[in-house]
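This section describes the prediction task in plain terms. A model, or a person checking by hand, is given the sequence of a single protein chain and must write out its three-dimensional structure as a string of tokens. No templates, partner chains or ligands are provided. The sample shown here is typical of the held-out split.
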Amino acid sequence: MSSFLDPTHLIDTFGLIGVMVILFAECGLLIGFFLPGDSLLFTAGLLIADGLIAPLWVALLLFPVAAIVGNLVGWYIGRRVGPSVFDKPDSRFFRASHVQKAHEFFERNGAKAIVLARFVPIVRTFITVMAGVAGMGFRRFATYSAIGGLLWTTVVTMLGYWLGGVAVVREHVELFILGVVALSLLPAVIEVLRSRRDRPVAG
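The expected answer:
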């Protein structure tokens, strides 16, 4: 992990505001897909347990706000910019059918997808924009985005906060951060395996 993306370095350098800006960017701006949201929240919880950054209640209030606002901005970007890209005549990279398929996906799985995507790196960035592109209703999107944002930021921050007093965690922080990232990928892996299992076998 480069020093620039190291969670402890980011928090030491930019503080609470920096954490909020990074959460906002990762959850709403396409360029933020590489940012370390899970490990950042986990590390923030560890440091809050040490009495650093901010009181726990402040973090649990502000982190979800940053994540949710980021999602709403991402939806708006997809709503405004997406159709101008995907509605063009079929090309090598873009097809009109992609938007229709995305629309059908969100009609079937929209609520579950938005909530679960919060816990999957990269996916949480792009699914937000795709929800806007596919025309998912704002009220429905905002409701489940708020649920997912609150669950994600609270669960991962509290994991860091609760585990901060465990010696083995303090001595192997990087390994536990990698574990958090691996766990966050688990829903996507389960969904892929389930879709393959349910896929009809070609005759």
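For orientation: The chain has eight helices and no strands.
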